[in-house]
């Protein structure tokens, strides 16, 4: 694991000083060592967190004749079979590191080598004879990479903050990103919060050579065959695939542990990992609010598998003093309040291990969100039972009758609720378009007039190869919401030089998720029906049946008590005017009005996050 960065100058000027400064900004991602490679007009750099092949795995890494150079962030889980195949083809290896496989695979298969990889990765590859720079990001976006292209060349880095050292970057707010975030607490497409700096989309490469730059997609979420229709076959496939995926991701030459929330996903990962590691270290957050505390379930799992429990009590008194540091490391203000317990758990985990397994991806891949119930029932009523897709050629009258049947089945209140953004996109909006116009200063809105993130979400959903309503909403989440969660996890863990892995998003698991028929995925209206069935005889019954909590936090209470001083300071009229993004009057109304509901808290949180981010990234241009 590491941080990567680089610059290619079209004019041939040396960009080394800029890249060295960018690497210093990324030191938290790799405190063990740094390294650089220079060619005419090019410098690539990295900071290393040593995980595998501690002695000889340094980067940048080259092939035998040094015609191909690479910086890489992540882990390649199938590097051993790929290495063996490449050795048979005549390639000579000098290390035992997975990174070396990339340069030889590129030599052997060209850009098609990316389709053979099973792992999490962001990489920068330099083909010296062709003077070609290739940036690539793994299929689901576990590892991040940003880039900026202008008339002078290309700059790239693992994190947005590295561009504060880039003299060519125009550090101004991207107003469309702000509207995205204020609407759905996310950012869509390739844009970032800084205008002109883009995130490389998951499953894509950016290729730059003398002919120009182009985006190339090498992976897509597809395979919606609905070929797994038996609950027994699905449960068996899930348990077997998860066990294999966890086993693949245990490779490490340093101590490894796992997060354990007490929910089914992280508990399943811990169960599988404990079959290989006796006394597996696990890390669990708990609150003083019994309604949010999953510690009893986590302890039950730890006891059942013989894991070594490390409890992390979330102390709200520490939030104000840590908030600025959290904001700096998270890079963009799109993480929800679940970042707070995640931050403190990562802090403790980093004192014991260098690698943690997580349960991310289970909800998005196997149907864990209540918002999925509406398309599940809609598919049941409006399509054939096997594929659950809309009937072709249905008349408008027939469609209306289907909607009426759905309304009677789930009830008018539920039906009405799901006819909103929650039903269409799986997420409710934080602010309406009118509220955004009132809050945001006109000078920012002017260049983003007419922008609506729903347009992009509809376009993404329309690219789903399945027509089943449930497939389409889950596809949308996998393409938009999941990458955001993974980026947040990456930033939080790497703030503490900790590598986070996601076994549920291994290649086998992702393939299985699209092969399970929609009718089976939420069978009988049961969220994550297949994982529940697979783990029913393996995990304690309470863990299988208890209400999902995840990283829910008592945000209403925190904002009214422990974080009230932080809110008053960051959202005061003077602070708002100094940052210049929001209009002071409506922000003052939010600040002074008592926080009574979850929606009130969400709106205050959204403004608070933007204010603190802008203070550091746009005004101060550095951490507090």
Explained architecture:
- Among the domains are: about 1-215, Glutamine Phosphoribosylpyrophosphate, subunit 1, domain 1; about 555-620, no CATH class.
- A hairpin with a 2-residue loop joins β11 and β12 (about 210-215).
- The radius of gyration is 24 Å and the shape is globular.
- The chain is built from 27 helices and 17 strands.
- By secondary structure, it is of the alpha+beta class.
- Residues about 385-400 have low confidence and may be disordered.
- α5 packs across α6, α5 packs antiparallel against α19 and α11 (about 375-380) packs antiparallel against α18.
- The two termini are about 25 Å apart.
Count of helical stretches: 27
The fraction of residues in strands falls at: 15-25%
Which superfamily, in CATH terms, is the homologous superfamily of one domain? Answer: Aminohydrolase, N-terminal nucleophile (Ntn) domain
Which fold name is given in CATH as the topology of one domain?
Answer: Glutamine Phosphoribosylpyrophosphate, subunit 1, domain 1
Counted beta strands: 17
What characteristic shape results from the CA principal axes? globular
Mind sketching the topology for me?
Blueprint: E1 2-9, H1 16-25, E2 33-39, E3 42-48, E4 61-62, E5 68-76, H2 79-88, H3 99-109, E6 119-127, E7 132-137, E8 146-150, E9 153-157, H4 175-184, E10 198-199, E11 204-209, E12 212-217, H5 231-248, E13 256-259, H6 264-274, E14 281-286, H7 295-305, E15 308-313, H8 319-330, H9 339-349, E16 355-357, H10 362-366, H11 373-382, H12 396-410, H13 412-417, H14 421-425, H15 433-439, H16 442-445, H17 453-462, H18 469-495, E17 499-501, H19 507-515, H20 518-521, H21 529-535, H22 541-545, H23 555-560, H24 564-570, H25 573-579, H26 584-592, H27 598-620
Parallel strand pairs: 13-14, 13-16, 14-15, 16-17
Antiparallel strand pairs: 1-3, 1-9, 2-3, 4-5, 5-6, 6-7, 7-11, 8-9, 8-10, 11-12
Helix pairs in contact: 2-3, 5-6, 5-19, 5-21, 6-7, 9-18, 11-12, 11-18, 17-18, 25-26, 25-27
